Amino acid sequence: MYEHDILIIGAGLAGLRAAVEGVRNGMNVGVISKVHPVRSHSNAAQGGINAPLTDRGDDWEDHAYDTIKGSDFLADQDAVEIMSREAGESVIELERMGVIFSRGDDGKLGTRRFGGQKIARTFFVGAITGSAILHVLFEQSIKYGLNVYEEWFVTKLLIEEGKCCGVIALDIKTGELYVIRAKSVIIAAGGAGRVFEPSTNAIICTGDGLALAWQAGAAVMDMEMIQYHPTTLAGTGILMSEAARGEGAYLLNSDGDRFMEKYAPEYMELASRDVVSRSEQTEINEGRGIDGNVLLDLRHLGRKYIESRLGYLQEVGVEFMGIDLAEQPIPIRPGMHYIMGGIKTDVNGATSVDGLYAAGECANVSVHGANRLGANSLLDTVVFGRRAADHATNYVKNIKHVNLDASYLENEKKRLQSIIDRKNGERPAIVRNEMANSMTLGIGVFRNQKTMEKAINDISGIRDRVKNISIDRKGAVFNTDLIFALELEFMTDVAWSIVHSAISRKESRGAHFRTDITTRDDKNWLKHILVSKDNESKNGVKVETLPVNITKWEPVERQY
Ligand SMILES: Cc1cc2nc3c(=O)[nH]c(=O)nc-3n(C[C@H](O)[C@H](O)[C@H](O)COP(=O)(O)OP(=O)(O)OC[C@H]3O[C@@H](n4cnc5c(N)ncnc54)[C@H](O)[C@@H]3O)c2cc1C
Predict the structure, then answer these.
(1) Cα–chain-centroid distance for residue 343?
(2) What's the count of helices (H) and strands (E) in the chain, helices before strands?
(3) b/e for 447-472, b at 16 or more Cβ within 10 A?
């Protein structure tokens, strides 16, 4: 029998930061990850992490305001205040743990300017910021002797008497299924990029954590807010980091014009991501694109600068397109990058289910609202990962382990075996591709009633088809076919929550831009949309709204 005070699902930045805190608090902590921890998607973050440091003449209120404006005033301002106030301390703490941040000529930590922000406050490690932080947190977890279930896959949360009391998980190496008891569970299972296609996200970003919470009855919030990153590589969807524009790259249309002049004269290429993505898509739709793309131009920065500051992008350009960025602009287009929505939590990571916490990309503390600023996600993971562990520590003090009936495990074994035994069904990959294409068409950079209704219809059909998929591999050891099938089930739940949130919002705000209702409507829609599973209703979904928490920044028109 495995058991822990705090069990954390996910070993990305949110999960590992929470784990380090939990162990420091004297808790018995377990971390479970479907891949080796340093293969988590946090590893792919290139650009950096934001922090307003006062000794740089920066101010937490300026960062908070940029974040709130970036969110199109949908972020809860109390949560943003906490993130901005705790940012400096969190980044310095990472440095002290061993993250070797890049430094400027003056020897001080170097910064670059990211989109939607007035000043340069993004700290970075070359083009490997996420990887550098993740490796340091992993080292810390080894130092603390952390218990890691590596290459284990969580299939179900266990809820008894309204409390979360553990999980069922599959040891991928052996195919054995186990109950892991826990006094509290923190979901830090990352994003859901692969619900869409193309996406900058790793193939493992399938929204499992969101679906686990959904199935357990927890509410998810702002799920319609899908971030399309403005610069993903033509053809593959590989991210060309915002650092490129942060360092001064231009965006050009087929006439060679810097078209951002028309859309965001003050911020130009460094306007918020939703604004830049829409501008690009408008250029493409109006015939000023090149094969469905526009161009990212770094030539004026010079070879030396590109290679020293943006070496990784140069590598991607050469390896994937045969393009030398010092010689030629590179074709890019908007691609799905991040989900602002997530499991609704308070500022301490608590969800609507007792004992269940969430942190990182799968959570919605509500700091990103309708559009996330670049380099604010890494910050979110460390600030709220730590807070979730602290709060879970207090919670478990008065909690005893629950005795779990053996039928939980037996039923889950039967369910998985029935997928393995199913014959002559469709392959998961085919259904998955259709789902992802439908989502991008329906809930894209631009959307309207018709596209969203079609997406609901499509996903409804997909949900029926998923019940009949079958897999070729029947063995127990490393059955990745089975994992893909389980991930597809999770993804369809996430897709279902997204389409129902999206169709409910009757305005345009941030990433949710409707071509049939093009304006923001604060009178009726300055509120969050919460959706949760409802077995009583016809479509299985309950939709509710919640007011936005405004502390001191009254909503105004958003201009860049
Ligand atoms: C290409 C790219 C570049 C980015 N660049 C930046 C940047 O420069 N700055 C910035 O702020 N943000 C950036 N982001 C966003 C940011 O990296 C992520 O939002 C953040 O790292 C997510 O961290 P996380 O800890 O929440 O999840 P992840 O790092 O995705 O970790 C999720 C964990 O959950 C585990 N898991 C998931 N499902 C299961 C399951 N069923 N069972 C067991 N384990 C499970 C996984 O194994 C993994 O360990 C970028 C994102 C991408 C895709």
Answers:
(1) 11
(2) 16, 19
(3) beeebbeebbebbeebbebbeebbbe
57-91 pLDDT per residue, tens:
899 999 999 999 999 999 999 999 999 999 999 99
Distance 152 CA to ligand 1 centre (A): 17
User: Would you call the peptide bond into 230 cis, given omega within 30 degrees of 0 as the criterion?
Assistant: no
User: What gap in Å lies between CA 338 and CA 222, rounded to an integer?
Assistant: 13
Q: Are 42 and 135 in contact (CB under 8 A)?
A: no
359 in ligand 1 pocket by Cβ < 6 Å?
no
- Compute the distance between CA of residue 155 and CA of residue 363 in angstroms, rounded to an integer: 18
Instruction: Tell me the three state secondary structure of residue 75.
Output: coil
Distance between Cα 45 and ligand 1 center (Å): 8
Task: Give the residue numbers annotated as catalytic, written as ranges.
Answer: 229, 245
Res 501: pLDDT: 98
Measured from the CA of 134, which atom of ligand 1 is nearest?
29
Q: Which amino acid type is present at position 344?
A: K
Angle at 54 between CA 374 and CA 114, to 5 degrees: 15
Element holding 518 (H helix, E strand): none
Q: Which of 515, 544, 342, 340 is nearest to 444 (CA)?
A: 515
Q: For residue 185, is pLDDT > 80?
A: yes
Average pLDDT, the chain: 96
Query: Tens digit of pLDDT for each residue in 340-363?
Result: 999 999 999 999 999 999 999 999
Q: Mind listing the pLDDT tens digit for each residue in 290-305? A: 999 999 999 999 999 9
